[in-house]
Amino acid sequence: MSEIEILHLGVEDYSSVFETMKILQRKRIDDEISDTLIFVIHPEVVTLGPKAIREGVEIEDYQIFETDRGGGATWHGPGQLVVYPIIKWGGKMQSVKSVISVLEDWAISALKECGIDSYKDHAMQGVWVDGYKICSIGLSFFKWVSRHGLSINVNTPGSRVEGLSGCGMGEGVHTCLHKLGYLLDKDGNDIDIKRVEHALIDTCEEILGRVPSYHLDKGV
Considering the entire predicted model, what is its pTM? Predict the structure, then answer.
């Protein structure tokens, strides 16, 4: 089974990580690095994918960044864990639908480890809890190496994520785990960014088929 490196960036502007992803994608295509997972928290920003740009989506009261992943408008900010898989997919996984499905399975498995039941909605990609969207997914590929990834809303502030119409859905569809009452995991530990991150790493081998190798802090 192949290894996957874990890169922790802490809190980092979306624009900076956007450039980092492109560098790592090129390196992965050329086999200069192994598969890599970026874990990061972004200062508040709304990213607009090509669909949102084509449709002329207008967003008020948020910083905007036009990006090249699939999907529409997506909120990023404090209380949200973002994970970018820079992975070279092979065989049966060389399908956008298949990759999205396995990332959904990964989020569902990690949330289950925290004692939270979540599920897919086959009409809209992502992961849902109690009728609300908790996890959004948007990707881009080059030579079947993925860039961009998934975000999980853990304890987002105020009504910022709830007040945004994004991914083809109206206001109030997205929310976070804390606002649904999921504050503690099945062992009584706080469900925070670190708890969800650890659950994703713990389920990485089972769902992604890759063994986390070692942890890197900042830098490429």
Answer: 0.92
